[in-house]
Amino acid sequence: MTALPPIRPASDADSEPLAALIAASFAEYENCHFVWEEFPELRQPATAFAAKGGKLWIADRPEGGIAGSLAATPLPEQNAVELTKVYVDPAFRGAGLAQALFAEALAFAEAGGFAEMMLWSDTRFARGHRFYEKLGFRRWPGERYLADVSETWEYHFRKPLLRSTPPATP
């Protein structure tokens, strides 16, 4: 594969194909199940993220469906942006698509003047953890339990952002 699929803002019409991408990603792991009721934001994904001041990006597969997704939502009380919905179809992994999606979120966070990016990731998603660490995220102490159908435990990752404002001179 030579060219990455173009990245665009999500629309509410992406509901079903985005759910299919997430369900396929979950199916790669034992006891990891996609249940619509646990993802109400996917019924109208663009509207749901916009309502929180966030944004969801989609990369379309050339033959239809979604090749990748990533969302960023401001957390003003933490001066951070939270990443969610980070999924890439196996056919596009290792090709730079996840980095391109992350670049959209990074530009969003920097434009908003946020000090950090953070995310939570299922403890089973070791490949994703390596990707986050490659991007400069560090795993923070502690885990959280979601009490969902998959009995999910998640790790917390954070990444400080560089300030574009130069330090004051003495």
Query: How many strands in all?
Result: 7
Helix fraction by DSSP (H/I, runs of at least 4): 25-40%
Compute the number of helices. 4
Query: How are the strands ordered across the major sheet?
Result: 1-2-3-4-5-7-6
Mean pLDDT: 93
Topology as H/E string?
EHHEEEHEHEE
Question: What overall form do the CA principal axes indicate?
Answer: globular
Task: Assign the structural class, choosing from mainly alpha, mainly beta, alpha/beta, alpha+beta, or little secondary structure.
Answer: alpha+beta
Radius of gyration, in Å, reads 16 Å
Main pleated-sheet profile:
7 strands, mixed
Instruction: Measure the end-to-end span.
Output: 52 Å
Low-confidence stretches: 164-169
β-sheet strand percentage = 25-35%
Task: Please characterize this protein's 3D structure.
- The protein is an alpha+beta fold.
- Helix content is 25%, strand content 30%.
- It is built from four helices and seven strands.
- It has helices at 15-26, 45-51, 97-111, 126-134, and strands spanning 7-9, 55-60, 66-75, 80-88, 116-122, 138-145, 153-160.
- A seven-stranded mixed β-sheet has the order 1-2-3-4-5-7-6, sandwiched between helices.
- Strand 4, helix 3 and strand 5 form a beta-alpha-beta unit.
- The longest helix is centred in the middle third of the chain and has 15 residues, at 97-111.
- The N and C termini lie far apart (52 Å).
- The relative contact order is 0.16.
- The model is unreliable at 164-169 (pLDDT under 50).
